[in-house]
Design goal:
221 residues; alpha+beta
Length: 221
Amino acid sequence: MSDVKFLDQSQTEERALVERIVKRYAVILKNARAIVVTDEERLERTMDIEACHCNGNPLDLQRFASAGDYDLIHDVLGIRDHLDRQTGKLKAFFSPRFSKHQEPVEPKPAPQPKVFNQEQQTLLKTLEKMQDKGWHVAAISDGEQYEPVKLGMTLRDVVEDASAVEMSWIQFKRAGLNKNHTILLVWGNDERGYELIADHSEGDGFDEALGEIQHELFPEG
């Protein structure tokens, strides 16, 4: 990358904006997927953004740093995947949303969340409380095969996918464990959601965590 230009030390405002973008990128990944961005990756993403900005595709760094989560992730990952690191140029006709030569991105109105029935609300609350206890959703299955949770997928998205069929499975992961744990969901047995979890794996404190949440949601049984 000897011919690739980067921001110099005098460009303090632009360097601060790039640092802010990369920090937000790390926070979004941690909150959405419990992924910890290493210092090495932070440096790589910083160099990617600077190379893009300084080698033919100037970025509106102020708007980039203030972007919504989805748009920020789109451009950070898009630059990562399409940057020619020998030239600093973008390949495959990729154009970041926050390129300076483009018109400002008009913020899209936030979609109204779908109204969940009681069973769906019960699952959503269960997933939120499991996440608080360190158990994060890893994959969903409708009986065919497990599909890993994709980047940017929310717990509401998980509930929608899981409730699209009569029977579904959700796998959970926890930091430090080498295996996932699973719950089996059978929809329609009880409109409150009390009987929604028809079966679950045991061990590693997983079943205890589920039991505590079940008691908290349905103290009367």
